[in-house]
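Q: Can I see a sequence and its folded structure?
A: Here is a first one.
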Amino acid sequence: MADKLRALFSSNDPSAFDVAEAFTDRHGQWVVVAAALEEHLRRIASGSFDVEDLEAPRRNVLVFHGVGGVGKSTLLRKVEAALTTGEHRPEQWGAPTWTERVLPIRIDLSRAASTGSDFERVILTIRLALAGALGRTLPSFDVALRHYWEHVHPGEPLEEYVRRSGLAGRFANMLPGQLRAGVGEVAAALALPGLVGSAAGQLTSALVQALRERQERAQALAGATRTAALLEATPDLEALSYYPHLLAWDLSRLPAKKSVVPVVLLDTFEETADRHRDFERLLQRLVWLMPNVLFIIGGRSRLQWADPALHGQLDWTGPAAWPGLAAASASSLTVPQPRTAGSVARQHLIGDLSPEDCEAHLARRLVQDGQPLINADIRDAITARSHGLPLHLDLAVSRFLEIRRTGRTPLPADFDCTFPALLARALSDLTAEERHLLRSVSLLDAFDLDLATQTAGLTHQAPARRLAERPLVTENPYALWPYHLHRAIRSAVRDDEHSDDRWTAADWHQAATRALAALGDQWTKAAALAPSRILLVACLRQGLRLARDHSLTGLGWLIDAAFTYTDDSVWEPLALPTPTTPAPDTPADAVAELLTTIARRQHEHRQRTADRLAAVLDTGLLPGELTEMALYYRAKAHKDLSQSDAARTGMQQVADTGGRLAPKARRGLANLARLAGDFPTALAAVPTLGWEGRHHRVLGDIHWSHADTAAAVAAFEAGRAEAEQHGAAGERAMTQVRLALAVSFADPARAEDELALAHQLLDGLDQRANTLLAQVVALIKDAGSPGVTDRAQNLRTDIDNAGLPYLIRFLELGLAFHHAVRGAGDDLGATVERLNGLTAGGDFAYFPDIAAAMGGISRPPSPHVRWLTSHGAVQEGWRTLVTARRAHLNTPS
């Protein structure tokens, strides 16, 4: 209704557009409500159910909790309407399966101020609803209520209170009359007609005496076991909180034709919270004492009644008292959840709307001539910014109307914003300490209690624990850091320019500095005990973004983490958001760009990598050690692009510095010597490389080039074992691919197994070059079989797109082996000619020699190639491998 009125007064033309109800399906929540109600009806209809049993566990409460604005109140209003007549129930919800008469009673606790009068309001609301539904007295309760009223509100008619308190409705005038009728019934039952008009206290005394004397008519009318004791107690607020027991008993005594099952919906339950839980204690007593009533509670936080720590603050606590309310049973309902008979989970986190639901919501909200008034582009912009929060959608609709009222047509850019009202809702029930923590953790993508505490600059974790229990913080217990802030709330906090206690730029900078230090502290401590790749990447992702976005200095741990990240060639994506400036202008910017470029090279053309690294180097912003890293990876990109002179210059520059990457640079120089055909120089470098220079891999590459499969396999196996000892998954996979390459020429059966292991080790490492090389190996393994040429053509396209021209040489060498095995002389000759052209620059100049040797093609040795043995011995080795493959395939020579 509020939306309709707001729209009506936003234009001079009341018929300009229609405001349609846009309640989003929430089918999953309705499934839970229906299941809980069905279970409740079965339980209270059971012969073993006893409304006076005060020791049995309670299963008559269902909780929906979630961040402010997620749609809890809307859901409860819709459930109320659906249970009332069913006319407003969405078609997707389906028809109810029960036949019993159900009475929904929704009570909004948002007006509560934790005073006794508010509990009176709750009790009177329930009794007023029953007055209209039943049209009859509930004598046991009515006598007690009248006795309470005359004692606590002497001289104030109940009718006047109902009118003044805002409870007046179409049944308001029925309650006083029913209370008088109830007194009359009791007086008649006691055969004391003179008491009808007397004070309730006199009637109460007479009723108590009759009950104590076990008078049959009195017991039939008000014979709950504890009625007399309740009526004898001083009629104050404490006594009133126990009177619902009498109301439950009265309901249980109704004739079958008059019976009704109340469903009480307590909305905005968070408003009951106070330090002493006084109002909550009264409400819990209401729920416990009315086990034949189903209570559906909506609030921001999970109901804690099953927490034993609340013992003494509430009357009934612990999981034994409230099965289903324990934390382990809480679930998030964004889709319908499966259930088993007799077991419905009792606490449910209301999740955000899906993009499809957001779109439907916005399309239906404002309609003009049967078409959505908000166009698709604006709907997309609002949906993306809302992160599924219904409150954001409603605020965006209001903004849309506001812009139209100015005479301007709204644009998608108008909705790339957050709303102060959304943040105000989120902050409204947080303490000052929790608000400080909220702003602090908004800097983090995810956090744990320790990280949140350090980022906020606090010395104790209690405030972080309290904040983590709020619905605006989502928990994933299986994540590295289990908590993350709701994305819409996070955006609103970061964009806050209106709150009284909003942070200054200096406040944000200090918090970011603390967050960066806290991340570094976690990673450093973990690395000293049990290094974790997952933690490393997670710390880098958050740390780099913080350092870049807040221009932080003190990048020490980030430098160490950067080297650890690149050491193993795993290349998990760092996935940093797009920078706000087109080029780095701080050291943190440069570091973020450097690592992003190195990781992205697995998905970009190598020329793009070389250009980006050159741009970072040109800024001069990189710390000295990371300048070495940029030089090294630019040299690697040049090598992959077959720009050997530039690669050699870069590798030599890094090697000469003697820094952390010097061993890798020396390996790069050895590999460049091998690529140039200078095998003696490459071999001489192997003893100087060690593990850091991956000496076994370099040696294996030398041996397979000489067709010395046994020596190559031994070297690669030693390299793989060494990588396993160092826990280097990237190097292990890389070495395994090369082992499969060496075996693929000599033993296709073993190559099948080695290649399978290579793919297994590559899985999840994001090594594009080695993944493509493994596909080349698969072709070599199948050399001589049909279909190899077609597969090679497809693979050639993938290699070109990756910007890895050196792999084309391997692909052509594999094709040469295939043609030689098949005895296809013309195809082999054409392949050798292509290799001549591809190696004209000097790199891989020995590949044409190897290809020619495979097919017995006579050609003079390349003048730039220096083999470890004679040229003839190498030719014979490769020719032997071709002959063996033919024998394997029974292919004639």
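Q: Show me another, different protein.
A: A second, unrelated one:
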Amino acid sequence: MHTNLFNIVLASFFLTLGGGSIYSQDIKKKKVSIPAVVQEDSLSKSVTDTIKLDTVKTKKTFLDGKVRYVAKDYARIDQKKKQITLYNEAELYYNDIELKSGLIVLDYGKDEVYAGRIKDSTGAFIQYPNFKQGANVVQPDSIRFNFKTKKALIWNSRTEQSDFRIKAAITKKENDSVYFLKGARFTTSKDIDNPEYYFQTNKVKFIPGKKVIVGFTNMVIADVPTPLALPFAYFPMTEESHSGIIIPSYNDSNTRGFSLQNLGYYFALSDNYDLTALADYYTNGSYAMRFESSYAKRYRYRGNLNLRYENLIQSERGYPDYSKQSIYNIQWSHSRDTKSSPNSNFSASVNMGSSKYFQQSINQVNVGSNLNNTLSSSVSYSKTFNTVPQIRTALTATHSQNTQTEEINMTLPSLEASVDRIYPFVGKDGVKRGLIKNINLQYNLSGKNSIKTTDSLFFKSAMFDDAQLGFKHSIPISTNFKVFKYFSASASANYDEIWYNKTRKKYYDPEESAVIDEVVNGFDAYRTYSLSSSLGTTVYGTFNFGETKKIQAIRHVMRPSVSYSYTPSFEKYYDTYAIDATGKLGDYTRFENGIYGSPGKTNSNIVGFDLSNTFEAKVTDKDSTKTDPKKMMLLNNLNFSTSYNFDADGKNTLAWQPVRVSGGTQILDNKMSVNFGATLNPYAIDNSGNVIDVFNINNGGSLFRLTSANLTMNYSISSKEFGEKDNKQSERNGGREDDLFGSNVDLTDSRRSQFDDEDDSTDVISEFFRAKLPWDMTLAYSLTYGNARRENEIIGNSVMISINTDITPKWKGGISSGYDFVQKGITFTQLRFERDLLSWRMDFNWTPLGEYSNWNFFIGIKSGILSDIKYNKRSNTNF
């Protein structure tokens, strides 16, 4: 059994929308008469006519305020009929009433005013009345209003309330807050006179800003009445948030049966926070619950919290494919306005839960999260103490979860504290110049409580069994100075002290014939130090080719630097143990596997070499009116780095490290970015593929052996003068900002566009073939080469592309796909289509290939007030 477009959902909506009460009539309050204060007539007008008063007996006027009026053609006063007639662009102002129209007749004898249209030279009606009283605006064909009773008769009125636009053949204004409408239609369409759909009713009670109560109502689409009708309906019109029921959508699955999805209730708790509770239920027993809350306080903070839980049952009990599991996800984001507290800050970004949640959820199709292997979270509080020197502290809890291995690493919490730099040798003038005056020192404190666990032990007491606690105290001392005027030198020393609450003890147990690795609880510490220095300069070079050449000059900037670091051996922290029954000894440190590492056993005596380059060209500008050459970047960077270890033993450690080459540039008017890298090893390998202490050139090879290389290219282009396209909204649950991996499909709110939410209402359909149809394209290419053990093969070679375009002014389409040349297959592919139906929106999202293949179809009203009038159908999710 399948539903059609507007059957059960529409009926349920009208019966439950807003969760408010339905009244057959309002009980009128007793009125208390209050004598009006009568003022003298103070009529004013834009022409020089006057009204002569009876000198025998002064008659009091009905008006209790000043009336102002103006007209373009004439303002005629008929004292016999007691009327003032205003014609063409007429305006009348009285108290909180503003009236503009082509024709206005003020009958001060009957205390009434009439306004209507006028005809232009072609006989067409123009200058429709615009009646405004307070915040309420009515735009009818004509209106008749009584100043004393505040009642009015309005013909073909047009008004807006919230997202609703209402038009009625006859409107009776009972008082300032109650209207009765006859022959009314109401819709969310922008064109009230020619809407693509509307609700037709004959009797309406309308209270602006509060509610609309209607009698028999029929839905009309494209001026064709539909069989969808209700005996009565109630619509809340207040602009304030109100609690109410959220109407579910119907679906069916081959593995879980029939279902109701996204049934829930919205709680408008206050102006600062709310709560949405949603649930799904399948007839095979599967169910899901979601709680979503947003909160904000102006100039203080804002955030949202989402809790999701699903109990999934696959197939039926007794069948071989039957399975049952529970998955969950917790998301929390919080940000604080820095102006509320400049010296402290609290922020949170949490995404944690079951590793397979986004792959198996029955109400999430988040492609970016499916392809992302990591969930991460961070909650931090920082505070700065404005002392001298300044002290900064930060307390952070972090979480990192591998969704493939289901391993979880957490710090609950980590502490970072630092004291600002101190310059002990600076003179009274405060000038920091030279070797001595630039000497400075700091104090840094770091503390961690590290926990490693898995999905199965998460939130259980066992996850804390192997927790590690440690503190690291660090005091860096550094200085910098000039050498020979053109060289910048620096020198530093660092002292570290590490505290642990657990250490290790290893020994051989003859009874078990095995090495025992025992955890020893209790405080222990070790201390290390290191020295380092660096020397660098900048060299500029220009190659001139002549001002008449297309390339006039190339500028080359080199930044060579040499660094030296020394870390001694801390062998004193090492012990020996028997590794077998023969008594063969091995060594270990009791601090191994600590969260801040362990002391080194060997000397580290390393000299590092780095060279960075940039290349820039001056070219003749294509614009002949410009005399100065145009600058063009050839290479943003070209870097070379390697190092030499004087204490290398040639066995475990080789003296020379491989040369790492990296670079990047931007071409095609900065639309394409190109990055590359390579690793060059100077040592040869043996027949087993192991690196040996023999230079490759001495082994019959070249000077360097290319062991790896990579190339990535990204190209973005759009129809906006071939500029860079705007980034899509960042996926909260992970993934990329662009749509190379497709766009996220939020099944809880399918009214949201898959494309940029741009207003297309200004498109001129009649000029379709002359219209500039927006489009954008993102292209990415990746190539990886491996040759560490003479593999000499392409490890990765893939291209990905994403294209979005407006097929017509109201049709949008997009595709994300790619091809893997190594695996010889199509990568993740998604097709997107969307139709702008003015007040409605229709879209189709299809992933045809792979493990996450699915499709989703939606059609519904855009306006949030009628968001439950929709039809949503999607494929079965088998993951």
